[in-house]
Input
Amino acid sequence: MLRLFRQLELRLFSPAPAAAQAKPDRPAGGKQRDDEGLRAWCADEAARLGMPELARAVRVVWNPRMRTTAGRAWWPDRRIELNSKLNDHSSEEIWRTLKHELAHLVAYERAGRRRIDPHGREWRAACTDLGIPGEQTFHTLPLKGRRMKRNYAYTCPSCQSTFQRVRRIRRMVACYDCCRKFTGGQFDSRFRLKEHKL
Output
């Protein structure tokens, strides 16, 4: 059976739940660490929404390897990862991020095996149930990412479109637009990308 998972990004800003006044525990060091307090809150919310399996299995971890994403939800693992850099922001941001990610798990739990849009109507309904109606899909937090130098460029011999890459492409690839336009989306060696070192 094919294992499904979803990596989801978000956008957040808003108030913390009334029950949570203090900032949650933060991770130390470079390893992911479970946050039992946030897990318990998520379990309570899932139980309140009538989702006993989600309440039983949900996990919340702080991930120090995350750079620009504030949080991620993994389903069917029922795991939420939060960026450790949220330490530098208010507890409101942490709670808003947590609710945003929990809404993803709630939406997927309700959908079961049916495919849904990650930020579609099911997710918006879950946001409303969790007290964040009108939630946006991407955050505006100033999380700095690392810049990676692009060492390789690939050019289509037909349309002259150029694509830059960090890593070398190890297999034969062709220009998608040209293949779609001239061969109905099938690979055609006439449109094979040519490599140039930058």
